[in-house]
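S.,

Sequence below, as promised.
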Amino acid sequence: MPAATEQPGRSTRRPRAVVELLVVLGAFAVFTWVHAHVARDAAAATAHALALQDVERTLGIDVTLATNEWLVAQPTWVEVAAVYVYRSYYLVLLGVLVWVYVRHPEVYLRARRTLLAMMLLVLPVYWAVPMSPPRFALAGVVDVVRRHDPLGDRSAPTPGSVYTAMPSMHVGFSAWCAYAVWLALRPSRPRAAWAAWLFPLAMTGVVLTTGNHYVLDVVGTAVLLIASIGAAALWGRAVDRRRRDGRAGAPGHDDGGDVPATLNV
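The prediction came back faster than expected:
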C-alpha cells in the first residue's frame, strides 16, 4: 500500500526541540531588536495618527475615545484587569506555542510558520508608517496602562519612543493564539476551536478601551494575519518540495526515513 501523503505544513513528526528553540528565540530576538529601532519619528507618527482619525470619523468608526471614557468610568479593578490582560498576552502566546508543539505536532509547523511570517511582514509596515497610539495623539484619552502598569511607568512618550500602533501586535499575537488552537482542535472539538477566537476579541476590547489602538489598527491586524497564513502555506509547500527533491536525489532512500531538521524549518 502506498504511503499516505502528508499535507503541506502538517507533518506528524515533531521537529527537534533544540532546532525549534533556536528558530523561535532567534526570530523573537530579531523582531524585538528591529522593532526597537524603527518608527521613531514622532512628527510622522502623529501626522499618520491624525490622518487615521480623520478616516475613522469619515467612516463613522471613531469609537476609541468613547470606549476609553467607558473604561475610565468603571471601578478601578476593571481598569487593572484590562491592563493585566494587555501586559500578560505573551504568557498565553508561549503557552499555546508549547502546547501545540507537544500535543499537536501535525499543525505545529504550520502555526509556527504563520507566527514567524507575522513578525517578518509587520516590520516593513512599522518602518514605512509609524503610527502614534490614541493615548499620545487623541485629545481626551486617558492612558490607563500608565495608571496601572505592573511593569512600571513605561508608556509615556520619550524622545526614543517607538510608534508602532498600526497594526496592533497585541491583537495580532492574540489572533495567532486563536488560529493555532483552532487549527489543533477543529478536527476533534470544533466548538472549542471556535471559542478560541474570543481571546483576540477580548484583546481588541482591551486595546481600544485603554487608548492603545484605533479600530483601523485592528483591521490592519486582520489583514496581517490573513497575509501571514498565506505566506506560511507557501513556505510549507516550498519546504515539502525541497524535501521531495532531496528524497528523489538519494537512491534507495525510504520515504519513511527521518527528515533532516533543517528541511522542516
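Residues 1-9, 252-263 have pLDDT under 50 and may be disordered.

Coffee later?
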